[in-house]
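Input.
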Amino acid sequence: MAFTAARGLYTPEILAAATALANWPWEPSLPLQGEARSRSCGSGIALALDIAEDGTITRLGLRPHACAVGQAAAHVFAQSAIGRSRADIAEGRQQIDDWLKGDGPLPDWPGIALIAPAQAYPARHGAIVLAWDAALAALS
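Output.
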């Protein structure tokens, strides 16, 4: 039964997105850095970024130490983070939290439907929000 459940969670699309994080390699020279760790599963992520004068993200790099779900969620974050402000990131994070709790619709973040199967796995919820939390830490 657990194997069947895992097969429903670790879809080929989630696994492909997890490996696509190579498109955003860690860049230690970026001036703003943040980290986040999931209390539920121990997954973690470090994120480095740079911002424009208006506070919007211009570049980012990631260093994941997360499960495939956390990495896939970080991929979803990274694909649409450029051009976003701290307020945008915070709003997206709140929408994800509401959705994970069952208190809101699927968040308005491009590509988030990719990780929709993980909503049914509360132990993975902390991994889903890692990139948003690390970005908010970097932008604080």
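Residues 2-138 form a domain with the Sufe protein. Chain: A fold (CATH 3.90.1010.10).
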